[in-house]
TrEMBL record:
This is Metaxin-2. CDD domains: GST_C_Metaxin2 (cd03211). Belongs to the metaxin family. Pfam families: GST_C_6, Tom37. It is found in: Mitochondrion outer membrane. Keywords: Membrane, Mitochondrion, Mitochondrion outer membrane, Protein transport, Transport. One of its GO terms (biological process) is protein transport. It comes from Polyplax serrata (Common mouse louse). Signal peptide: none annotated. GO terms for cellular component: SAM complex. Residues 70-190 form the Mitochondrial outer membrane transport complex Sam37/metaxin N-terminal domain.
Length: 286
């Protein structure tokens, strides 16, 4: 595998341009990417439409961090009773305006990634976080940052940097969407991109044991914050509960090779109870 991947460096330019031309031509949206808060605010002031579509990768090709964010968005929309149609596409990553998943199509607009979708919904005055004071809201954002900076980076580390998991799971899942030679080229490109991000954040200097210890400390902080409450901020779930549920669900139901993370999570029963409560009260309702 390493020998085949080694040839990919010289064709990275070809891969980038060919792939985007090929996959973007499959399905073009008459829309713009909402990257500025002003645009989000103006569009968010309108009512939630009935024809919202949530796009994600086909589940059998999902890589853990992307899958966790997709589940988090689904959970957030469901706990706020927001209707959407779920559509799985093999080329969803290339359909996304930011190249990241998931994304929603809402009228003429496309909003990608968990944070931008939260902002879009929040600007409609929707969500239990609307009832928070400034201190609570800042507290919620701090813990969401903890989840993203530790759990999500740990997932990226395990999936793309930890060799045994990459070779046995990630490479096959990610590359199987593409035909040869793109299966090698684009998977190599993605691995380089994620590794570069992890290197900037200092995660490539960590051993796997250090990563697992970071996850343990993260879960401990979250567990202490939750304490004996049904959800992090009272009787109703918020953006934080939805985000953590997405990551915990995907880790606990993921491949056996990722259960080193799952074993850590299982040591925090109140976090598990919160996820079970959210699932029973909001996700299993018809």
């Amino acid at each position: 595998m390493d020998d085949n991947i080694a040839i990919c460096g010289g064709v990275a330019y070809f891969a980038e341009h060919f792939a985007h031309e090929k996959y973007n031509s499959i399905w073009k949206m008459p829309s713009v990417l909402l990257t500025e808060s002003l645009t989000l605010e103006l569009e968010g002031q309108q009512q939630w439409p009935d024809d919202v579509t949530l796009y994600q990768q086909d589940e059998k090709y999902q890589i853990l961090p992307d899958y966790a964010n997709c589940i988090a968005v689904q959970t957030f929309l469901k706990i706020n009773n927001l209707k959407f149609e779920l559509v799985a596409k093999q080329n969803a990553e290339f359909m996304s305006p930011s190249g990241k998943l998931p994304f929603i199509k809402c009228g003429a607009f496309v909003i990608a990634e968990y944070e931008s979708i939260l902002s879009f919904v929040s600007n409609k005055g929707i969500g239990t976080s609307q009832r928070m004071d400034k201190a609570q809201w800042a507290d919620m954002r701090a813990y969401m940052s903890l989840v993203n900076n530790v759990l999500q980076n740990a997932e990226l580390y395990m999936c793309w940097y930890e060799k045994s998991y990459y070779d046995s799971v990630t490479w096959y899942r990610y590359s199987s969407v593409f035909s040869w030679p793109l299966n090698y080229i684009l998977t190599w490109q993605k691995k380089q991109s994620v590794t570069k991000k992890l290197k900037v954040l200092g995660w490539t200097k960590k051993t796997k044991d250090q990563v697992l210890e970071d996850v343990k400390n993260c879960c401990h902080s979250l567990s202490e914050r939750l304490d004996k409450n049904p959800y992090f901020f009272g009787e109703f779930p918020t953006e934080l509960d939805a985000l953590l549920y997405g990551h915990m669900f995907c880790i606990l139901t993921g491949q056996p090779q990722i259960q080193e993370l799952g074993s850590i999570i299982k040591n925090f029963p109140n976090l598990l109870e919160m996820c079970n409560r959210l699932e029973t009260n909001y996700l299993m309702k018809k």
